[in-house]
Here is the input.
Amino acid sequence: MSARAPVVPAGLDGIRTHLEEVYQDLHRHPELGLREHRTAGKVSEALRSFGYEVTGVGGTGVIGVLENGDGPTVMARADMDALPVREQTGLPYASTATVTAPDGTEQPVMHACGHDMHVTCLLGCARLLAEDRDTWRGTFVALFQPSEENGDGADAMIADGLTSRSPRPDVVLAQHVLPYPAGYVGTRPGPFLSAADSLRITVHGRGAHGSMPQAAVDPVVMAAMIVVRLQTVVSRELAATTPAVVTVGSIHAGTGPNVIPDSAVIELNVRTYDDATRRHVLDAITRIVRAECAASRSPEEPEIERTTSFPPTVNDEAATRRVAEAFAAHFGKDAHTIDLQTASEDMSEIPGAFGVPFTYWGIGCVDPARYAEAARKGTLDQDIPVNHSPAFAPLVQPTLDTGVRALTVAALAWLGT
Here is the structure.
C-alpha cells in the first residue's frame, strides 16, 4: 500500500504553529542521556492528550500505543537526548542550559544533533494519525528513546522489558536530520550508517630522566609509532572500494618536558559498514599495537579496551523500497537515494530485539539557498555546520513539515486503507 498523500498536508496545516512552539521549547530545554525527565514528561502528556496508551521504559524512555482496528503494527522511533555542547547559534530560542558534571564543574547542554526536531516530528505524526483514523487500520507505536548519543539508550529500554511492554511491530521506522537542503528526504537500502567502536589503548614503558633515554622505554615514541602505523590499516589493508575510517582523537602522556613517563594512553575511533570489515580493522589495530610494543621492548603487554560500540545501521531492502516508493509519490523530486553516512546509531538494536525489519532515512535541515551557494563555491564542509557543531541549527521550516510528513507517509505505507 502507498500513502494517501493529500491526508498529510490537510492535517498538518492545523497543528503547524503548535509544533513549531513545541520544537522551540524542546530546543531551549535540552537534557543529556538518561536525564531526559522533562522531555519524557512533555512527550507523555502530549501522547495521552492524543488518545495513546502511554508506558515508561528504560528510565526516561516513552512508549505510546494507538490501536485502530485490525491491521499491521508500525513502530516509529525518535531519540530525545542532547549533547554537552555550548550553543553558538545566536537563535532567540537558543539553549543556555547547564548541568553539573561528575567533576563538579558546570557543563553546557545543547540539542546539537537535532533530536529535538526528531521528537517534534514524531509527536506531529502521532497526532495526525490519532486525528484521522478513517485513513488507516492497525496499531501505531510511537517510541521515544533516551541516551542515543551514549549508545546505551536502546539497550536500557530492551533490558527494561521493551519487547513485552510494546506490541511487536511488523516494521520499525526512524529518521535523522542531516546537513542537506531542507525539504530533502533520502532513503538507502542496505548499509546506511556505520558501526562505531571507540578504543582506549594504554602502552607501558619505563620512566626516566629526559636526559637519559637509554635508561627508559619511551611510551611517547611507542605511541607515536602506533599512530603512524594505524594509518596503514585503511590505506593498505582494505580495498579502495571498502569504506572505513580510523581516527586517533586523543593521546595523553607525561607531565613535563624533561621526564620520560611510564605510560601513554591513545584513544581512537573506528567506523565500518559490515561485520567482516569491522573484525579485520579491530584485529589489525590489536596486531599493530602489540607488535609496536614488542618492537619497543615494552615491559608489559598493552591494555586495549573497547569503551563504546555502535552496531551498523543496515536497512531492510524490502521495507526501504516500500518507503522509497511512498516518498517518491508524496515528495516527488525531493525524494532521493542518500549516500552512505559515517555517523552511527544504536536504533537497530530495537528492531533486532523484536526480530523485525527496519528502515532509517535522512531529512535535510539546511537553508536551501545557503546550501546551494556553498555547493557552488565548493565550501560545503566550511560553510554548513554539521551535527554536533555548536553552530548546528536546523531551519525550522520546511524541516519540521518534511519530518512530520515523512514519518506519516512511511507509516501509512503499511497502515493506509
